[in-house]
Amino acid sequence: MKLSDVHILEKIAAGEIMISPDIVNENIGSFSIDLRLGNHFRMFKHTACPPFIELGSPDGIFAMCDKFMEDIIIDEGKAFYLHPGELALGITVERLSLPKDIVGWLDGRSSLARLGLMVHITAHTIDPGWDGRITLEFANIGKLPLALRPNMRICAISFEQLSGPTSRPYSQKKGAKYTKQESPLSSRIDRE
Q: Ramachandran region of residue 72, left (φ > 0), alpha (ψ -120 to 50) or beta?
């Protein structure tokens, strides 16, 4: 069952759900909290990319994939332009920490989706025991470039209480590839 705004705020006040910096009232919905876009992005370089990414071989071209991506930091007041057909990784301003018995669900904002912005493509689950900022997987499926501005409300997170604490919280899971992330991390599938 999803937590209501009342129960989310109770969990935050009790220190069970931790979000920093503190959430402002206008970002609290009836059952979710709007998260803001950070200023750090990663995307594939427009040059020097391999002809393909080998997904089945950890020692193949995929292991070198990260070197074909570049970091982009956007200054205050500027925008990151996501062109049609492009994929980019971004990061939330907010850092989130969840207990062993609460899962987070990330949703893009409808108003942005209507312009062609996909915010999380498929990775919308924030595991119990998560601790870190959230990497967002952007794709522009629209016809025009989209200007993404740091600190804009970019997505919403809702929370669901599990039937009990998990025995495998993300922060303690063997092979947790993205724990305590502070910047958008490229795929680490080669670590599986």
A: beta
* pLDDT tens-digit readout, 38-85: 999 999 776 665 566 666 655 554 445 566 788 999 998 999 999 999
Phi first, then psi, for residue 28 (nearest 5°) are -100, 120
Half-sphere CA count of 84, side-chain side, radius 13 A: 5
pLDDT mean over 124-149? 95
Alpha helices in 81-170 (DSSP H): 110-113
Backbone angles phi, psi at 6, to 5 degrees: -60, -45
Let me know if 10 is a catalytic residue.
no
Q: Catalytic one among 137, 160, 182, 192?
A: 137
Average pLDDT over residues 2-30: 96
Rounded Cα–Cα distance for residues 31 and 114 (Å): 22
**Cα dihedral sign for 104, 110, 116, 117?**
negative
Please, are residues 176 and 170 in contact by the beta-carbon 8 Å criterion?
Answer: yes
Burial pattern 89-108, b for ≥16 Cβ within 10 A else e, equals: bbbbbbbbbbbbbbbbbbeb
The set of residues, in sequence order, having a beta carbon less than 8 Å from that of 118 and lying 6+ positions away, is 108, 137, 138, 139, 140, 141
